Amino acid sequence: MRELLEKIAAEGEVAADGVLKVDRFLNHQVDPQLMKRIGEAFAVRFRDERPTKVLTLESSGISPALMAAYELGIPLVVARKRRPLTMTGDVYRTEVYSFTKQEANEIIVSRSLLGRGDRVLIIDDFLANGQAALGMVEIIEQAGADMVGIGIVIEKAFQDGGRLLRSRGFRVVSLARIASLDGGAIQFADEVMSR
Ligand code: G4P
């Protein structure tokens, strides 16, 4: 998605440890017009799969996931990392380890929101090691629902997540793929990647 690549090139910053900082349009301040077009891009790519729900993990996945759900005309389910007081009743639950943050996180979704017959599209902001996406896949499996694909705004292609997910046969669509952040320079891989 050319507009996204240009935005990353113009406003992205490389943190010293190989982390891409996109706080000006995605992770802290959010550009709604760009999110709208990201939502449209995911909708075009996944509409034929007839998804019934979009699933993301709080918090930075919410902006692109909401716009994708809006474009597809289906609900967005936001998986939580902590069980809110108001989330009573049975839940699906799994644990994922973040190599980037070096911490374990729970992923929790109410059983009342996902179930058999659902066709679930996963959307997230970043794909690094793939653990968050795998955790969401696990939740979908617990629910007995079908997973129709994974939409990623920015894939760090130099980390293992994309390979891991695609090797399991999942359809992964990344709107921007970063080949390298070495030396503080942002290098892009191909523009759009799908299985
Ligand atoms: P993984 O899910 O692909 O295995 O990634 P990992 O655990 O390594 O990353 C954990 C968190 O760090 C995720 O956010 C992910 O979006 C974010 N992340 C990973 N690499 C980068 C990067 O290069 N730049 C930025 N900006 N974020 C990155 P999270 O823990 O879910 O936090 P939140 O911000 O969504 O609340």
TrEMBL record:
Residues that bind xanthine: 20, 27, 156
Protein name in UniProt: Xanthine phosphoribosyltransferase
UniProt keyword terms in alphabetical order: Cytoplasm, Glycosyltransferase, Purine salvage, Transferase
The organism's place on the tree of life at top rank: Bacteria
Assigned GO CC terms: cytoplasm
GO term, biological process aspect, one: xanthine metabolic process
Family classification: Belongs to the purine/pyrimidine phosphoribosyltransferase family. Xpt subfamily.
Species whose genome carries this gene: Geobacillus thermocatenulatus
EC numbers on record: 2.4.2.22
Gene Ontology molecular-function annotations: xanthine phosphoribosyltransferase activity
HAMAP family, A to Z: XPRTase
Lineage of the species this protein comes from: Bacteria, Bacillati, Bacillota, Bacilli, Bacillales
